[in-house]
Amino acid sequence: MGNLIVRKVGVLGAGVMGAQIAAHLVNVRVPVILFDLPAREGPKSGIARRAIEGLARLSPPPLAAADLASHIEAANYEEDLARLAECDLVIEAIAERMDWKLDLYRRIGPHLRADSIIASNTSGLSIATIGDALPEAMRSRFCGIHFFNPPRYMTLVELIATPRTDAGLLDALETFLVTTVGKGVVRAKDTPNFIANRYGIFSMIATMENAERFGLGFDTVDDLTGTRLARAKSATFRTADVVGLDTMAHVIRTMAETLPADPWHRYFRSPDWMQALIDRGALGQKTRAGIFSKPGKDILVLDRSSGEYVASTGSASDAVKAILKIGSATERFAALRASDDPQARFLWAIQRDLFHYCAFHLASVADNARDVDLALRWGFGWSSGPFETWQAAGWQQIARWINEDIAAGVAMSDAPLPAWVTEPGRTGVHDASGSFSATRGTTVARSSLPVYRRQAFAPLVSGERVAERGQTVFENAGVRLWTGIEATGQDIAVLGFRTKMNIIDPNVLQGIAEALAIAERDFRGVVIWQTGDHFSLGADLASMGSLIEAGRFDEIDHIIARFQQTSLSLRDAQVPVVAAVRGMALGGGCEFALHTARIVATLESNLGLVETGVGLIPGGGGCKELALRAAREAASTRTASGAAWLFDFVRPRFETVARATTARSAEDARALGLLRPADVVIANPHELLHVAATLARGLADTGWRPPLPVQPFAVMGANGIATLQAQLVNLRDGGFISAHDHTVGMALAEALCGGAVAEGSLVDERWMLDLERGLFVDLLRNPLTQARIKHTLATGKPLRN
Amino acid sequence: MPRQIEEAYVVAATRTPIGKSHRGAFRDTRPDDLLAFALRAVLAQVPELDPATIEDVVVGCALPEGVQGYNVARIGLLLAGLPDTAGGITINRFCSSGLNAISMAADRIRCGEADVMIAAGAESMSMVPMSGHHPSFNTRIYTDENYGIAYGMGMTAERVARQWKVSREAQDAFALQSHQRALAAQAAGEFTEISPFEVVDSLPNLHSRQIERRTRTVMQDEGPRADTSAEALARLRPVFATQGSVTAGNASQTSDGAGALVLMSGKALARLNITPIARFASFAVVGVPPEVMGIGPKAAIPKALERAGIRQDDLDWIELNEAFAAQALAVMNELGLDPARVNPLGGAIALGHPLGATGAIRSAQLIHGLQRRKARYGMVSMCVGTGMGAAGIFERV
After folding, report:
1. pTM to 2 decimals?
2. Do A129 and A238 sit in the same domain of this protein?
């Protein structure tokens, strides 16, 4: 298979999905031409232009950095179809109307390049039927490509082949989607609504049906079916509001029309209350009212019987909360089913009907059970898919209960479970060799596409093989240094923290020192890579808290000094240290990353020096590093009006840290100066370790030397402090910040300006480190900072005092 | 004791239209070009005058740096084609720079050391930001007395609003009136002092790969908004303080523009047989605490009146610069200025405020207005950042 070259993508349709797909493509540095109908008035590409402008107003933001929007070109079908020849991939995402789609495909056919790929982002229409509207020669280069809303944030893309789709092309597209676009790809069959929506929407239908049966309100159901069930926070009905009730109704109608023989067909109708809401224009989030509404401060919920909005008070009962806390899935399911509490029986019922439905249709909808579980995790935000949940709860026991309920007539359908479910010896659908395929009647291993070899830690479903651990080289209470998996070979060592949220405590500091010494001796490079979702939440404030109470500030000063030494040691190690960042890298975690040879960050990572939130400033070398970067940038920059002025490089960094700004993406971190030009941004978090290890090895191969010692550099001194103080004074006296914010801001100004010295004075690294450490400890002595720390530790939220 | 041995007369006055900064007509027009144009235009009004007799050109500019640095007065007069024998000096007292240029030019005449002087003002807020390219404060300003130096101008307006009890509603109503008066004056053709300016923009055309020259003639001020309303103004959020009342709608607009006046001694008038249009009667400047700089005119106006030997009621026309509605109203209330005589053609909230040029621009507007309406005494006054008020009085002759 040769390389799939995607220089530019054409996206047809600038609606909610089309525009957001375009946005995400430019997020991953793929330029886009976004097409829509010609505007009746004004410039012909006005519709697409307005959609691009509208991206800035969407929440969560589709663009990883605002200026990326300029890489989406607006176009229209009347003037610009010839420009399709520039596009290596064309994604159609127009409204879900088969006649409109067919018409558009006939029009674009003549303009497509013979070697381009065309794919439809339909969420449920027949891919084969759409493809037939293309010229004969293009049909092998056509498939379905189903993104989930919002496409930047939802992992899932379903790829759907037609009988004519070229298999190699599909493999190449999957590779592109996984590595370049950062998505989780599931191959789906060309059946209505494909996999995730077919099961996910059914799950919502079953939830609505059982809610009626058990007489539960929408608010109660959402409290039960969200995080308590390890599903998305928006649970069932808030998800419906977000999706839009009109869209929900449309999808359900599609199921009714296209699945006449489905044994659950009689449930494929919108409930009366939903139709009533639609009729009165309450479509959910987009109209600010749906099943829930928030006219003032409080959230209201629709009362099914009266049709009025009432205060939202329903929540899980204590009995159910207790059951859901049971650790063993087997016991949890047994307790739910045996309980007299209607909420408990409801929770059993919705899962029973979902398992029943999933098993019944597995053969026709998906190649195997793993694809179903991953599709629902990635497309609906569940932590666990239906099959793996079932398997963890005890396959045969659950199957018996489902059969009992079918026999008793309480299951939604009396369709029998397929024979494979209860065949002797079956303990589930996932095992070390793969996942069960009902179509093939056998277990199917994971994809052998080379792209998946880049995923050192693939997203495994429960019951599948156990993730590798590698060989431990060294560990203490704070860190583990290990190696020996395919991504690392035997020459790259991986350093991971073992603390909660990877916070940095004295054990971590000690561990890093020992690990680096070992790595310098026995390895060619080090990757700091964490097993959790976050890189590190920073320094361990709790242990700091007890030292404060004991008044042991000398000891704190000593710890901060070690913190600073650790930062420097990451930079000065004789082997390259690469930080593999995903999720949050805050405070001390960010300071460590800033000092490594390179950062490899996933697009969805959040770096930030957020110390001011707890009344502190960066003390682990962060202020020093920002001041140094400012000085170097200023020295190497000339502006139109001559030499650059250092203050212009200090001020934005001051503002970023003073506001405790957390970068909203890796591209945002670049704009904030937290990523350097040589730092690397990747799209797929599962490839993080592979890329970081490869980069570490590459740096070693090019003859890595740590940077030469930092020579004295210029600081802004007193003039800089005074000028930054002007901003603080205006904010304080305008009521925007508190007096203590001003105090903290002044400490930051001093730390970034090198103290009250003459402007342009040359200082060394030691000067800056001593300064920031002294200011840090001074702030720790301040009762207002102490109150902030205490409050944050107790509540997890910042205190404004 | 006589303060002067000569009278200083204004014989010509003009100004450019005022452009909105950053998105207006002059966003790509250099301030030295605006200045040179104003100088040529004002000299064209006195063809009898031999430019070789011009002693000095005093130019007010609030941020004389970057494109308006390097002594923009001298650059501007040379670009205007004045003989190189004429001197050029750039002066700065922020918002009163243009008025101070007039008073300094007049003083040279009044003490008998010059016969012909030019006073002007020029500012491009598009090209030089409000706090300059390199704002840098002294650490020692943060004392109780002086920390107001660090205040943004909007913050000082909030302080004035609070101390002199100027409500949000009053500020918005004043702002609305400024726009309404300005629009009415434009419709009535009252801005006779304006010299239309031909803008020539040279921009890269990325399609044709050519430099595209675009010219258009700007006839009037860009600031007045017909689409503003009490409701629209009330919707704007305070910018400078969480509990504040000062908004973008009741503050002056940032602008680009220039103005120029020719001043001559009585002796020279007689020699050349030129009829003056105004006599420069007096000038005063007074300092106030920096954090309430907007109240400055309250102190300066009585002093200027006293020096001119007239009473407040003798003033037929008052150009009180609307840096902020809050401070303008506080000054009017404190001194009991007649609202009908203050800014009859609207003020900086509607017309714009190109900092250092404003004094020259408003003086040109006032002097032409006094002529049109056959009124006698007029005054230009403004508050000044870091805490001052300035006032200058003209008498139509």
Report:
1. 0.91
2. no
